[in-house]
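stage 2 :: seqdesign
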């Protein structure tokens, strides 16, 4: 099972003031991961104490064209998240969780061109993550891409893939005028505010290209983030990681051995799945200049260190402008929008 305590650039307080405070990276002893701490986790991945759950989602029948929620027919919820299959021919499946638990039906099948609209409860929904799966069997399992484990997910015979997935993460805020908002799972005594916090980054790597379009009045976030040219063929085949020149290309462990993902330098050095990563801890001397845990690496040291000179960072900045490529990058990290904003995400087939 993938360890979902790892988090880069996804944490903060529930207030805009606290979210703007300088980030401090902490190390979990005995766990090969690190995370960003800024007071209380906005997306909720730090706390392991669940708060009261939002109302259960509606049961929606699956149609031939894919899943389609009708938020107008769902009491106390509305369509605030849309995901589209941008592949020319292939099916995609959507995996997700909301604070370590599947909230919607898991592994939703989307045919080429189909869109699913998720009905997000007005009381808010914390710590969601959505990621695409490709090359799956008829049940949406045993996928070539995206079978990286998580709540409600299984692992293939070779084990779970390293979690380098392209993904969209958000804590959906409470709609204004709602009588009683959901609890913040990271601080159960507090309620979710009326702000959405959302995040995309390639601090771990990438799998499928994608595009995010923000629909609504949100002056604090870009209207479009276009990473549709983020091709696996652009993943570095020989990256200088200090200890050696190594490929960042994640290979299918069975079958053709084709490239099915791209590690970030930090992920290559710290993940050990399928015997393709090295399994160092982020604060080890081998990995710390690429993972930038603080301490011992300061933000200034990170931003002037070897990570900024990697082919990986250059590729992300070229093909996915404005998006984080490493810890302390100056791209789009944790963004905020008023609750009720809609996020249209299109995932494309691997290139």
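stage 2 :: out
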């Amino acid at each position: 099972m993938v360890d979902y305590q790892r988090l880069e650039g996804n944490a903060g307080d529930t207030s805009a003031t606290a979210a703007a405070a300088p980030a401090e990276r902490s190390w979990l002893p005995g766990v090969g991961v690190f995370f960003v701490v800024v007071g209380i986790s906005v997306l909720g991945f730090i706390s392991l104490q669940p708060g009261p759950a939002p109302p259960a989602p509606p049961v929606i029948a699956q149609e031939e064209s894919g899943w389609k929620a009708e938020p107008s027919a769902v009491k106390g919820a509305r369509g605030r998240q849309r995901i589209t299959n941008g592949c020319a021919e292939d099916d995609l499946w959507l995996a997700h969780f909301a604070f370590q638990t599947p909230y919607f039906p898991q592994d939703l099948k989307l045919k080429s061109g189909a869109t699913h609209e998720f009905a997000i409860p007005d009381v808010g929904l914390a710590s969601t993550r959505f990621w695409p799966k490709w090359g799956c069997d008829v049940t949406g399992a045993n996928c070539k891409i995206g079978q990286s484990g998580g709540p409600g997910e299984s692992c293939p015979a070779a084990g779970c893939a390293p979690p380098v997935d392209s993904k969209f993460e958000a804590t959906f805020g409470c709609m204004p005028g709602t009588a009683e908002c959901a609890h913040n799972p990271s601080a159960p005594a507090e309620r979710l505010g009326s702000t959405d916090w959302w995040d995309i980054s390639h601090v771990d790597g990438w799998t499928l290209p994608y595009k995010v379009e923000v629909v609504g009045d949100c002056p604090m976030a870009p209207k479009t983030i276009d990473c549709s040219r983020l091709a696996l063929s652009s993943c570095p085949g020989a990256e200088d990681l200090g200890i050696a020149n190594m490929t960042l290309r994640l290979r299918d462990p069975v079958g053709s051995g084709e490239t099915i993902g791209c590690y970030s330098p930090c992920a290559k050095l710290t993940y050990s799945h399928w015997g393709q990563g090295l399994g160092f801890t982020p604060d080890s001397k081998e990995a710390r200049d690429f993972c930038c845990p603080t301490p011992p690496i300061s933000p200034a040291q990170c931003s002037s260190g070897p990570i900024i000179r990697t082919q990986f960072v250059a590729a992300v900045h070229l093909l996915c402008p404005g998006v984080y490529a490493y810890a302390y990058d100056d791209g789009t990290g944790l963004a905020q929008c008023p609750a009720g904003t809609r996020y249209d995400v299109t995932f494309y087939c691997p290139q």
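stage 3 :: structure notes
- Residues 232-319 form one domain.
- The CA atoms of residues 50 and 235 lie 38 Å apart.
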